[in-house]
C-alpha cells in the first residue's frame, strides 16, 4: 500500500513536470488577438489619451487670426477714447456743482438761494436745533426759499435737505 | 519579454506610450498579447471570452500605465492586471471557486472543446491534461502556479503581481504542486497515459 502511494506520487510528479515542460516548450499555443481586437484596444487607448489631454491653451491675442480683428477694432477704440477726452472739460471730470446757500434780506422776507445741482429741496424750520423737534416743512422746487423775517431776537433754525 | 538587442525594451515602449505614442503601445500589445491570452486560458477563462478579457486587460494597462515602475518586470505588472481582469470576470459570473462541482464544470468549459491539430500531439495532450487539472486549484493557487511555473516569473515578481508576500507565493506553489501531482497521478485516458509516459528528454528538445 505504501509502495503504491509512493509510486503514485512519483507518477504524479513526473506527469506534472512533463506537463509543465510541455507548456513551456516552443510549440506551446501562441494565440493572437484578432485584428479587430487590436484595433479596438488602440482606439480605446487613443480615446484615453484624448480624455487626458489638457485644455488647449488660449489663442494668443496677437496671433494672426486676432491681428485682423484688432486691425478693425483699433480705429473705433481710438475714436472712443478721443471723444471721451474731448467731452471732459479741462481740469477734470464734470463734477457736481458745489452746494451753495445764499441768504438775502428782501423787504420783510429772508430769501435763501440754494444751489447744489438740484432744484427740489425740503426745508424744515425750527426754533431749536434739534432734528426731533416740531418743524414747519416747506418743499421748494425752484432752488430758492423765502420766509417772513421775524422781528426781535428770536433765533430760527432752517434745515435744508 | 523585454526586447532583444535590436529593438526597444519594454521600458522604452512604456515611456513612449506614456508620452502619448499609441504606436509604441501597439508594439507592447503585439509583444505580450500571446502571453496574456495564454495566462487567461490557464486561469480558466473559456476561449469565447479570452479575446474580450484580453482587450480589457490591455485597455486597463494603458489607462494605468503611469503606475508601472520602470526597471521592474513589465510582464509581471501586466499579469497582475490580467489576473485581476480574470478575477473580476469570474466574480461577475458568480463563478467563484466555492463549489468544486462548479469549478469542474468551468474547467471543462474553459478548456478548448476541439483541440487544434498540434494539440493532438503528445505534448498537446499533456498540456490539456494540466489545463484540466488546474481547475482543481483555488483561484490564487492557480494564479501562483501559472505565473511561477508556466510563465517562469520569479517569486518576487509573482508576489508583486498578486500583491502577496513571497512566503505566501511559495506556500501556494507548494500546495498547488501537491494537488496537481495527486490529480495527475490518477489514470487518464489511453491517449493521456501514452503522453504521460513520454520520455521527458524529448520534451526538452526545442524547449525554451
Low-confidence stretches of chain A: none
Instruction: Assign the CATH topology of chain B.
Output: Rna Polymerase Sigma Factor, Chain: A
- What is the string of helix and strand elements of chain A? HHHEEEEEE
Instruction: Based on the coordinates given, report the CATH architecture of chain B.
Output: Orthogonal Bundle
User: How many beta strands in the DSSP annotation of chain A?
Assistant: 6
Span from first to last CA of chain A? 123 Å
Protein described:
The complex is a heterodimer of chains A (161) and B (208). By secondary structure, chain A is α+β, with helices and mostly antiparallel strands. Chain A has a domain at 100-160. Helix content of chain A is 40%, strand content 21%. Chain A is built from three helices and six strands, in the order αααββββββ. Chain A has helices spanning 2-24, 35-52, 64-87; strands at 100-106, 109-115, 121-126, 136-140, 144-148, 157-160. In chain A, strands 1-2-5 form a three-stranded antiparallel β-sheet, with no helix packed on it. In chain A, a hairpin with a 2-residue loop joins strand 1 (100-106) and strand 2. The longest helix of chain A is centred in the middle third of the chain and has 24 residues, at 64-87. Chain A is elongated and about 145 Å long. The termini of chain A are far apart. The mean pLDDT of chain A is 71. Chain B has helices at residues 10-18, 22-42, 47-63, 74-92, 100-110, 122-134, 139-150, 155-162, 166-185, 190-196, 200-204. Chain B has eleven helices and no strands. Chain B has one domain: Rna Polymerase Sigma Factor, Chain: A. The radius of gyration of chain B is 18 Å and the shape is globular. Chain B is mainly alpha-helical and 208 residues long. The chains are: A alpha+beta (161), B mainly alpha (208). The A-B interface holds A 8-9, 11-34, 37-38, 40-42, 44-46, 48-49 and B 17, 20, 22, 25-26, 29-30, 33-34, 37-38, 41-42, 50-51, 54-55, 58-59, 62-63, 116, 118-119, 121, 123-124, 126-127, 129-130, 133, 149-150, 152, 177, 180-185, 195-196, 198, 200, 203-204, 206-208.
